[in-house]
């Protein structure tokens, strides 16, 4: 039995003051991945942001060791005037994990290392955004639609990077629509949709 | 943290005129004043301390909204919030980067602008000292204001409305230091009071700024 | 029953429904008695003549202007610490009343200042402090109206209120340092020696009570409106979700 790195018990999350998910419970063990599915607006982003502690949970508990999470949202967090190498080096130094070479290799960015990030194509920018995860050295990856604007070859690169991460004992929670070719559990969020409170009863939280 | 500072300074330089913009604005304010009040040294000299401080303050205000806005828009701020650095530290470093690109050049250039305004000889030392001690507070208060308004679409004007009243004590003591220096009075008292505000600001506002950022990131 | 039970919107609505009417009545009675007494049944001051009678508007509004900000500070703290929505909404509701009181104090001061000092406006420390307080109210209200999400707005305005209070306090002393003033000493001092004489003092107390009850009634009315708006917002969200 592998100790779960990330454990969620009866979690409820809100978006814009409205509870959208409730009763979410799952465990992800070291070395495994969880794919989140569900239609647009089902709360995938909300759940990932809650797991990353960017927003507070409405109720329920999240068990994860401190400072283990790397969150990659819709935006890549790149600075256009900095080169690819400078962008990565910055995030590496911030997370105290200096070496950017493996990340460059994993996403085939080595030839682009001196190019300013603003001159990259959308797919190249996305690859750089994902390479950022590798330089954090964090075991828990929370990825929100990571394959947007990636071509088939790049999706393959990404899949292999996730596999290596899992093989190294890491875990990944990925919200995605496409098949990444990795062995992962699937959690469909449409089953956890919060039911609207009935009647005119307003409690303290007006919800 | 040093990485963040270096990145912000590099961004300020590469974005074209990160250092220059505030200085140019300061220069324009100082040049426009004599056109407004007349060229007489008798008029300019008494108001020079106030104009210099006001010009520095407005030049500082100019670039405040960029402190967090770009990082908020491109997702860097979310990543910074999950990084193993305290958000309070991020706020403090951002304010420091802002000071290095605006407050410091303004402090160094202020004596030159003082000449344009016929600032009397006794005021120059106090001018540099008061700006050196006072502009860090302007940057820190500004970073707090920028953290409050970072999620808003048109936050720039609101930011000025929120920040300017908070600048009043620093402006009063800063300009008074120079005025007393010019008149040969004891300028140490307002300078020390202003330094007190600056240090208090530096100690407390990173926490308020980080709290505001956390709310805006939700 | 604990005081905090009124933080429940439903209890608050039920309770204030009973309190608000009497508060309006008390305000009307105290203001009419106090103002009529003050304006028509007090002697003219030996130096200031009849102009002194403006204190029955000036002093209570100035007193309320400061204390409403203090009330907003307290309710903001309660929101930040205990997360009672009613508290945050009460702070929001009080701000426009506070800014109006500040404006009344400034305007009556200007009208009084013209015959006394020969000018409508002087950069006297007290006047300047009130002008700064006016700016703080404006910024606070602008921040409320600029943020769409009500909880985010409540959090950010509360932080602003906290920081603003510290700076308002600093400004008060900085302004004293900057300019010694023309303004007479406090009318409402604990030190009896400095106080105005009893003939003016009793109607002034009645006026103060009137202003207080007026504030209480207005702030309850506005808080109730804010609670209803907040409910409407929650219902809209629910319907969008359903």
From TrEMBL, chain A:
Enzyme class: hydrolase
Keyword Lipoprotein tagged: no
Residues of the ABC transporter domain: 6-205
Coiled-coil segments on the chain, per record: none
EC id: 3.6.3.41
DNA damage keyword on record: no
Top-level taxon of the source organism: Bacteria
Gene (name only): ccmA
GO biological process, one term: cytochrome complex assembly
Record-level Gene Ontology MF annotations: ATP binding; ATP hydrolysis activity; transmembrane transporter activity
Gene3D superfamilies reported for this sequence: P-loop containing nucleotide triphosphate hydrolases
Protein name: Cytochrome c biogenesis ATP-binding export protein CcmA
Keyword entries, A-Z: ATP-binding, Cytochrome c-type biogenesis, Hydrolase, Membrane, Nucleotide-binding, Translocase, Transport
TrEMBL record, chain B:
Gene Ontology biological process: cytochrome c biosynthetic process; cytochrome complex assembly
Primary location recorded for the protein, binned into one broad class: membrane
Gene Ontology CC annotations of this record: plasma membrane
Keywords carried by this UniProt record: Cell inner membrane, Cell membrane, Cytochrome c-type biogenesis, Membrane, Transmembrane, Transmembrane helix, Transport
UniProt-annotated location(s): Cell inner membrane
Any one Pfam family match given in the protein's UniProt record, by short name: CcmB
Topology within the bilayer: Multi-pass membrane protein
Family to which the UniProt record says this protein belongs: Belongs to the CcmB/CycW/HelB family.
Entries under PANTHER family matching the protein: CYTOCHROME C BIOGENESIS B-RELATED (PTHR30070:SF1), HEME EXPORTER PROTEIN B (PTHR30070)
Name recorded for this polypeptide: Heme exporter protein B
From TrEMBL, chain C:
Domain of life: Bacteria
Membrane spanning stretches: 21-41, 61-81, 93-115, 127-147, 159-179, 199-221
Alphabetized Pfam families for the sequence: Cytochrom_C_asm (PF01578)
Residue ranges of domain Cytochrome c assembly protein in the record: 19-183
Gene Ontology, cellular component aspect: plasma membrane
Predominant cellular place of this UniProt entry's protein: membrane
Alphabetical keyword list: Cell inner membrane, Cell membrane, Cytochrome c-type biogenesis, Membrane, Transmembrane, Transmembrane helix, Transport
GO MF term set: heme binding; heme transmembrane transporter activity
Compartments it resides in: Cell inner membrane; Membrane
Entry's Gene Ontology BP terms: cytochrome complex assembly
Function as written in the Swiss-Prot or TrEMBL entry: Required for the export of heme to the periplasm for the biogenesis of c-type cytochromes.
Family statement drawn from the similarity comment of this UniProt entry: Belongs to the CcmC/CycZ/HelC family.
Name of this chain's protein: Heme exporter protein C
